[in-house]
Design brief:
alpha+beta; BirA Bifunctional Protein, domain 2; 5-stranded mixed β-sheet
């Protein structure tokens, strides 16, 4: 039996990969406009990093990590997300001491979670994410949200919904925590084993449980919004004020708790509102994580960021029937007839490519008709035809595939004259 691809992963081939490249290029372009610099961190890290950051009561850590012992006996984990690694690098390279503050970083690459695969949920997926470290100004919360929205809109998405919440500061969260424990304790026996464990350790995770989310107690559970202290309330109001100033519509969802433990204050998700989009509608998630840098061993530093997956981005484009305009065709296909012309075409191709033209030729000894067919398939703008006679006469025929017009060029001035033809 042949070997097949692992469940929850995919091969991205020509025809689709161009969409990925376009989204990735747009993301880089926007990061340049907003001044986020790329960081590339390893695909695996010490497991401890994710226990400390994502949190040991989360589904990600408890059920979804690809963790293994390496040959040196260390516990290693394939990264399930990018924030932890970015913060680790921030601390390790003492970026808190850099002159330019806040430190604004972005990353793009594969993440790994052992989840049940379904539409929009993969075991290997590619996240694009940004992190702004070193500022507690609510204006940067609005900037982070607006960059995500800008990217979706730049590629044509219209049916977007932004949902925000505040998880408050430490004091607010502690008050909420106590209220949750008191609320759930009398009936915790009705909840799953994980939730029973979460009650004392991290009761907010109960609100996020995939198994118990329909339990009747969930609906009227104490909401964090009612436990925000003055400072947290003010912060949240300022974020809303800036979003309004940026003309970014939003909804407040007091039940939005996010699936990772490091959040406080602003939490947000961007969902697709498109009809027919699968049941997983979250395209992008993020929030503030003041305290995480300290947890990883750095000085007190506020931070905020988001991540989105390219897989769900593409699914949202499909749900809105948006065709990305991909530059598909090549500039020139060289048809060579006869051995000498074929030999010469090797350098012709090189000349074209060196001058910045995409070019292709036949490598299968096909007849002229089949070579023209190949040129058609590649959507060539021009076909350059070189036969033995032309070669001797220092000529080459170039046919425009759009108009059918043929032009004879001097072979030794091919590139210059081809460039004029292209203008
Ligand atoms: P997250 O909500 O776990 O947050 O993931 C962010 C995004 O990654 C999701 O909204 C979704 O687009 C995508 N995603 C997650 N899991 C999958 C999957 N199995 N298949 C396809 N796409 C997936 C984080 O990862 C945080 N690190 C975000 C963040 C950055 N917060 C602050 N800074």
């Amino acid at each position: 039996m042949s070997i097949q691809i692992p469940r929850g992963t995919q091969d991205i081939r020509s025809g689709d990969v161009e969409k990925w490249q376009l989204i990735e290029a747009k993301a880089r372009e926007l990061c340049d406009l907003y001044q986020y610099k790329e960081i590339r961190t390893p695909i695996f890290e010490h497991t401890e990093l994710f226990l400390r950051s994502v949190g040991d009561t989360t589904d990600i850590v408890q059920k979804e990590m690809y963790t293994f012992e390496d040959r040196g006996g260390r516990s290693i984990t394939l990264r399930p997300e990018g924030t932890a690694s970015t913060v680790r690098a921030f601390v390790e390279h003492k970026m808190f001491g850099e002159a330019n503050q806040p430190v604004k970083l972005y990353y793009m690459g594969p993440m790994f979670r052992y989840e049940r695969p379904q539409a929009g949920r993969f075991r290997q997926f590619v996240q694009f994410g940004i992190e702004a470290l070193g500022s507690a100004d609510p204006a940067i919360d609005a900037e982070v949200i607006s960059l995500a929205r800008h990217l979706y809109q730049a590629l044509g998405l219209k049916k977007l919904k932004l949902v925000i919440n505040s998880l408050g500061d430490k004091e607010s969260r502690n008050a909420h925590r106590e209220a949750l424990i008191e609320y759930f304790r009398p009936r915790i026996g009705e909840f799953c084993h994980d939730c029973q464990n979460r009650l004392e350790k991290n009761p907010m995770r109960i609100l996020d449980c995939k198994k118990d989310h329909n339990h009747e107690l969930m609906k009227s559970a104490p909401s964090i919004i009612d436990y925000l202290n003055e400072e947290s309330k003010n912060y949240f109001e300022k974020v809303q004020k800036y979003l309004t100033a940026l003309n970014i519509p939003f909804e407040i969802d007091p039940n939005l708790v996010r699936g990772l433990d490091y959040y406080n204050h602003t939490a947000f998700e961007i969902m697709s509102d498109a009809e027919g989009f699968g049941s997983i509608t979250t395209l992008c998630g993020g929030g503030r994580y003041n305290g995480l840098v300290e947890e990883i061993g750095g000085p007190e530093t506020p931070g905020i960021g988001f991540a989105l997956s390219i897989e769900r981005f593409i699914a949202a484009l499909e749900a809105e029937s948006i065709e990305l305009s991909l530059n598909k065709g090549i500039d020139c296909y060289v048809v060579a007839l006869g051995d000498e012309a074929k030999d010469y075409s090797v350098s012709l191709l090189q000349q074209l490519r060196s001058a910045g033209y995409s070019a292709e030729r036949d490598y299968l000894n096909r007849k002229i008709k089949a070579q023209f067919k190949a040129a058609d398939r590649l959507q060539a703008s021009y076909v350059a035809i070189l036969g033995e006679d032309e070669l001797k006469a220092n000529k080459i025929n170039v046919k425009s595939m759009k108009t059918g017009e043929q032009t004879e060029l001097e072979l030794d001035q091919f590139i210059d004259q081809f460039t004029l033809l292209n203008k």
